[in-house]
Amino acid sequence: MSVGGVDVVRTERLELVPLRVDHAEEMAVVLGDPELHAFIGGAPADPAGLRARYERLVAGSPDPAVAWCNWVIRLRDEARLVGTVQATVTGPADERVAEIAWVVGTPWQGRGIAGEAARGLVAWLGRQGVRTVVAHIHPEHRASAAVATAAGLAPTDVRHEGEIRWVGTAGS
Questions:
Q1: Are strands 154-160 and 163-169 parallel, antiparallel or unpaired?
Q2: Residue 26 CB partners (closer than 8 Å, separation 6+)
Q3: Calpha distance 81→73 (Å, rounded)
Q4: Which of 119, 108, 170 is nearest to 146 (CA)?
Q5: Tell me, what's the pLDDT at 168?
Q6: Least buried of 81, 117, 120, 160, by fewest C-beta within 10 Å?
Q7: What is the pLDDT of residue 94?
Q8: Are the C-beta atoms of 37 and 43 separated by less than 8 Å?
Q9: Domain boundaries, the chain
Q10: Cβ(46)–Cβ(34) under 8 Å?
Q11: Minimal CA–CA distance to 3: which of 51, 73, 69?
Q12: Is the dihedral of CA 3, 115, 40, 157 positive or negative?
């Protein structure tokens, strides 16, 4: 499935740069704080583990009906990577749905970066014909709830694996 190719997405302060395997070294440092895993589980990956994961992601979904879209977040003023955003896009062209996620390294949190990146991602998805955007957020993760709200998503009554399903319309 094509969603227009993964482009560089520019926002006021950020560039969402298509993920490359060679981002692993820098991103291992950005994502190295164990606190980033408080709500999602797991532990930080070392550069080799992240490189292996990025190789799988860059190769793309083995299912042609699913598109994996992954970016690193570059903060232009600091000329450095500060996090990631991703979208898994499914469905026929007239009913595309994207499940999105984001993470910003601890030193850059609280500056509106995740919200700005998520808004840029949702706008880009809308330009690619995606209609519905979904995120799953731990009920106690207030910061991610704020990011989802900033991106135009709203909580539903649906729970999936203990997380609340948030839904919005792409491009809105």
A1: antiparallel
A2: 80, 81
A3: 6
A4: 119
A5: 97
A6: 160
A7: 85
A8: yes
A9: 9-169
A10: no
A11: 69
A12: negative
| 10-residue stretch averages of pLDDT, the chain, 172 residues long | 71 97 97 91 94 96 95 97 97 93 96 98 95 97 97 97 96 62
| Domain at 9-169, CATH homologous superfamily | Gcn5-related N-acetyltransferase (GNAT) (3.40.630.30)
Contact 99, 88 (CB under 8 A): yes
Q: How far apart are CA 64 and CA 58, in angstroms?
A: 14
Query: What is the spatial distance between Cα 95 and Cα 32, in angstroms, rounded to a whole number?
Result: 37
Distance CA 92, CA 110 (A): 37
* Structure confidence at residue 122 (pLDDT): 97
In one-letter notation, the amino acid at residue 19 is L
As given in the structure block, the two tokens for residue 56 are: 């799988």
Residues 6+ apart with CB under 8 A from 129: 3, 4, 93, 94, 96
130-137 and 96-104 beta bridge pairing? parallel
* Rounded Cα gap, residues 25 and 73, in angstroms: 14
